[in-house]
């Protein structure tokens, strides 16, 4: 079983891990302690004190707050609400639904026809970090990406104690 | 001793590997010595010198005495390969067709996973491009287009070429490569571009070499041709300096021979040769060449060559006395168009790491390996993952006090502890059974691979003699040949230096290839056949000039050169061609064509099946080949008198506990060098030499023949 140092995993999260180690990580069965090391590396990076339960994106996490509630939270500490709710409903949204808005991100004629497809960009209302982009048809409801069963993940997959959660 | 030293040393073979540099000296009477020294990438010549000293010490002779006696010296090594892998070549500028500037970096997409194990190849996340040999910033497109038929559709815009040259010089290019589309079909635009570049360089008063693909590798497949020409510009000149250093050191110690280098096509070329890119891989080829020569001596024309090293198991087949040539191989994760002796490899070797899959609890070998670090049994290795060598040490296969002639001491207990913790305990097995399970798995993997390699090509193992060599080969020979049903299994006493020996066996031979496109139907008229012959002959004549030029560089005259024409042929519309040594020395008439076809059909029937022959499709010639050789001195095999079946008492070293099939037995230990021709040994026995260990377990016996070849047999 291959194991890695906390430093290597920290480099992995930063994208600065050397290729040979990255390649070995990719090809070998996953090391048991990776998730714990990964959380440790993330926790060291974020400015907030709340404990990370599950990372959701490069700047978005499910954390355990002081009241032991699990909430979705941005890097900057902005809280999007209970982790079971769709955090996007509490985010700032920018919809690209005109050709003009599309040409800001793609060359002309290389972007979708906005009658068929629009981009919906979700930002943190406090710090402006972009957390997600959807590319649905114009009328499509806001997508709830992920409803994680965190208890099962910790218990059955990781074999780790489940972080405390207020009812 | 005096009798022995009276004989002159004639031939030297060198295998400068990544870890060890082997030298192999052969005397007139066929006696040989093998020398080993730690490789020295910074100065290969020094490692060769040290290795030579080590070898000649066995004869109580010195380098100064022996070097002047040598008539042949052949080098094979990884200098060129390492230069490419480490991207330490010249800053090359590239001129290609406008719009195709990114082609080199894109590497046909498949360069992102070349050299990977299957598991990684199908795992997209692992795919990754190496840094290209030429960055896009030093690539310029010029307007020109030649179509697939070789017709110039857009003429070369010479002003573009001049500007590209100026920009590439400005960007610091140390060499310029030109590779235009379809230039193998019609060279005119590329040749013109080359001349314009040279002219512009002269105007700029810049003296840098220019490499046009048509002058080097005029073969179809654009990425292959471009890569190969770039490789030549990028790595050949710096490698030539390395080889010159080696040659100079030989000269300094009185050597009079001209150093030759093993090349991918299985011949050797001078270090002064124009095309050095083909020396990129040479070590493993040596073994195949050596096997061919041994086979000729023994009268075996079908041979399965098997070479097991630390990281991989290489298999090559010799059928009817010939090895196969692959014309567009990949090396160093680049697709190339170089003729390469065909070999198949699996990434499991004596140093492979052994791990348990945490989910299935299955034992997994490799794909990475301990390499020169041996395993956890060598405390200084810094390793903590079990390797196959660890299992060997624990089971008594290897002598912990005589590894590499005692150069390093192995710690059996350390290996035991690691096997226990990592393999045995999780599986609930004893250390011995866990280690034996690993060996069995390796043996099974290798023997299945060997068997599949032979039967997949339509052959029957019973018609083949298996040669087993490489430092670790003889340890495993019994394991991977058991039950395969070979006619004979042969382990040369010099297995560890076999690649170096093979290099010394190789002809001084240049080979040039050129793509041609000829199609002639089955019942074509004489005029068509003669026309096809004339195209083929033109290609041969063009190649002959190149081949003879190379020999002239080394001071040979045109009449000394023996030219051997060949061609690649296929049934029209089929995908794979076969390489045929031409039955005619010149091609001109319809009768010549018929003989060319006949030779192809005979080979086709032998390689596949007579009933698979399809002359009704017509015939295509896809490539012209010309090989040229001159006479050189080759090693002769020793001829020892038969000393009877009983080994001399001084060869006996005692016994060692040896574990196989769930029990410990006492294996007799023999010193390989002291065994005599005719000696017969019944297993369990272990025959040790400095550089290799030959394992003859229970149920096997071996006999030494007059050439110092061990023949291994199963006792039924």
TrEMBL record, chain A:
Xref: InterPro entries: Aceto_COase_bsu/gsu
UniProt cross-references to Pfam families, sorted A to Z: Acetone_carb_G (PF08882)
Protein name (Swiss-Prot/TrEMBL): Acetone carboxylase subunit gamma
UniProtKB/TrEMBL annotation, chain B:
Domain Hydantoinase A/oxoprolinase: 225-511
GO biological process, one term: glutathione metabolic process
One function term, GO molecular function aspect: 5-oxoprolinase (ATP-hydrolyzing) activity
Pfam families, per database record: Hydant_A_C, Hydant_A_N, Hydantoinase_A
Domain Acetophenone carboxylase-like C-terminal: 524-714
Top-level taxon: Bacteria
A cellular component annotation (GO) from this entry: cytosol
Record-annotated Hydantoinase/oxoprolinase N-terminal domain positions: 12-200
Organism (species): Parazoarcus communis SWub3 = DSM 12120
Protein name per Swiss-Prot or TrEMBL: Hydantoinase/oxoprolinase family protein
């Amino acid at each position: 079983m291959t194991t890695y140092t906390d430093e290597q995993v920290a480099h992995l999260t930063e994208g600065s891990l050397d290729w040979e180690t990255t390649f070995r990580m990719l090809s070998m069965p996953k090391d048991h302690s990776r998730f714990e090391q990964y959380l440790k590396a993330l926790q060291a990076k974020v400015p907030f004190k709340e404990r990370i339960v599950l990372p959701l994106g490069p700047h978005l996490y499910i954390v355990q707050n002081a009241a032991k509630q699990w909430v979705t939270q941005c890097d900057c500490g902005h809280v999007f609400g209970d982790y079971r709710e769709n955090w996007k409903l509490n985010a700032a949204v920018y919809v690209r639904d005109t050709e003009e808005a599309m040409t800001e991100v793609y060359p002309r004629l290389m972007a979708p026809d906005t009658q068929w497809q629009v981009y919906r960009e979700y930002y943190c209302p406090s710090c402006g970090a972009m957390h997600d982009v959807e590319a649905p048809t114009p009328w499509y409801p806001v997508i709830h990406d992920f409803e994680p069963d965190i208890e099962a993940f910790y218990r059955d997959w990781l074999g780790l104690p489940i972080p405390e959660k207020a009812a | 001793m005096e009798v022995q030293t009276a004989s002159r040393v004639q031939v030297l073979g060198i295998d400068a590997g990544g870890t060890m540099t082997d030298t192999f000296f052969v005397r007139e009477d066929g006696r040989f010595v093998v020398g080993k020294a730690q490789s020295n990438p910074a100065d290969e010549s020094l490692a060769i010198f040290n290795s030579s000293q080590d070898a000649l010490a066995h004869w109580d002779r010195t380098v100064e005495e022996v070097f002047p006696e040598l008539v042949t010296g052949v080098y094979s090594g990884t200098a060129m390969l390492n230069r490419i892998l480490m991207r330490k070549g010249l800053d090359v500028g590239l001129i290609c067709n406008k719009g195709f500037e990114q082609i080199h970096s894109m590497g046909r997409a498949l360069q992102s996973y070349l050299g990977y194990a299957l598991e990684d190849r199908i795992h997209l996340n692992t795919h990754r491009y190496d840094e290209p040999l030429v960055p896009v910033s030093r690539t310029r497109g010029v307007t020109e287009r030649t179509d697939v038929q070789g017709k110039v559709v857009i003429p070369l815009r010479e002003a573009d070429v001049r500007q590209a040259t100026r920009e590439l010089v400005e960007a610091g290019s140390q060499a310029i490569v030109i590779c235009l589309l379809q230039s193998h079909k019609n060279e005119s635009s590329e040749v013109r571009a080359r001349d314009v570049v040279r002219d512009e360089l002269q105007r700029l008063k810049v003296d840098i070499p220019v490499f046009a693909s048509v002058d080097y590798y005029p073969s179809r497949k654009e990425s292959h041709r471009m890569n190969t020409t770039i490789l030549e510009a990028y790595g050949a000149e710096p490698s030539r300096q390395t080889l010159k250093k080696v040659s100079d050191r030989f000269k300094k110690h009185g050597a009079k021979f001209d150093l030759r280098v093993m090349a991918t096509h299985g011949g050797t070329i001078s270090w002064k040769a124009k095309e050095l890119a083909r020396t990129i891989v040479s070590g493993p080829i040596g073994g195949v060449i050596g096997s061919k020569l041994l086979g000729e001596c023994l009268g075996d024309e079908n041979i399965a060559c098997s070479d097991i090293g630390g990281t991989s198991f290489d298999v090559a087949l010799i059928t009817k006395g010939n090895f196969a040539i692959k014309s567009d191989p990949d090396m160093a994760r680049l697709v190339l168009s170089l003729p390469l002796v065909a070999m198949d490899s699996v990434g499991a070797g004596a140093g492979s790491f052994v791990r348990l899959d945490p989910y299935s609890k299955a034992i997994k070998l490799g794909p990475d390996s301990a390499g020169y670090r041996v395993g956890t049994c060598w405390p200084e290795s810094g390793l903590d993952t079990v390797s196959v060598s660890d299992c060997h040490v624990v089971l008594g296969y290897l002598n912990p006090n005589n590894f590499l002639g005692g150069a390093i001491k192995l710690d059996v207990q350390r290996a035991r502890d690691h096997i226990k913790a990592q393999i045995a305990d999780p599986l609930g097995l004893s250390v011995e059974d866990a280690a034996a399970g690993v060996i069995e798995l390796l043996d099974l993997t290798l023997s299945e691979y060997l068997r599949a390699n032979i039967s997949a090509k339509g052959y029957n193992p019973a018609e083949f003699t298996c040669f087993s060599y490489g430092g670790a080969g003889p340890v495993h020979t019994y394991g991977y040949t058991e039950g395969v049903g070979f006619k004979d299994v042969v382990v040369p006493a010099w297995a560890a230096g076999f690649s170096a020996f093979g290099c010394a066996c190789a002809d001084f031979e240049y080979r040039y290839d050129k793509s041609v496109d000829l199609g002639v139907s089955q019942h074509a008229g004489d005029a068509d056949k003669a026309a096809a012959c004339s195209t083929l002959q033109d290609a041969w004549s063009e190649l002959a000039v190149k081949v003879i030029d190379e020999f002239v560089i080394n001071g040979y005259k045109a009449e000394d050169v023996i030219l051997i024409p060949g061609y690649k042929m296929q049934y029209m519309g089929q995908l794979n061609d076969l390489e045929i040594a031409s039955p005619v020395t010149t091609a001109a008439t319809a009768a010549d064509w018929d003989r060319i076809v006949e030779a192809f059909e005979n080979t086709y029937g032998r390689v596949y099946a007579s009933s698979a022959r399809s002359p009704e499709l017509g015939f295509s010639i896809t490539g012209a080949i010309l090989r040229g050789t001159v006479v050189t001195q080759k090693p002769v095999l020793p001829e020892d008198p038969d000393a009877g079946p009983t080994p001399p008492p001084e060869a006996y070293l005692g016994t060692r506990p040896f574990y196989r099939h769930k029990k410990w037995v006492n294996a007799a230990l023999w010193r390989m060098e002291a065994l005599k021709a005719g000696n017969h040994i019944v297993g369990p026995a272990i025959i040790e030499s400095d550089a290799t260990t030959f394992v003859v377990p229970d149920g096997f016996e071996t006999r030494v023949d007059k050439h110092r070849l061990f023949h291994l047999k199963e006792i039924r």
